[in-house]
Amino acid sequence: MEWTEIMGHVGAVLSSITFIPQVLQAWKTKSVGDLSMNMLLIVITSTVVWLVYAFSLNLLPVIIANSIIFVLSAILIYFKLTFKEAPKK
């Protein structure tokens, strides 16, 4: 494996884990009021675009990273739609 492939896989892992703390926090607290639905929709749309691009060029690190980000973003959208917002103080 060449160093560029290694860097691609490291980048994929780092990109993929960015949403894990937010998903865990939202699950634990059942609170997503501060999350922007617009941001989540932009992220999920961009991952779809990246996936189309990556599949067309067979770029495994990009496919892996964006697949994971897609799933985590979808989970956050699900939480945003199902968790009740805390009452405003």
From TrEMBL:
It comes from the Bacteria. Keywords: Membrane, Transmembrane, Transmembrane helix. The keyword Membrane applies. One of its GO terms (cellular component) is membrane. It comes from Roseivirga misakiensis. Pfam families: PQ-loop (PF04193). It is a multi-pass membrane protein. The chain crosses the membrane at residues 36-53, 59-79. This is Sugar transporter SemiSWEET. It is found in: Membrane. InterPro entries: PQ-loop_rpt.
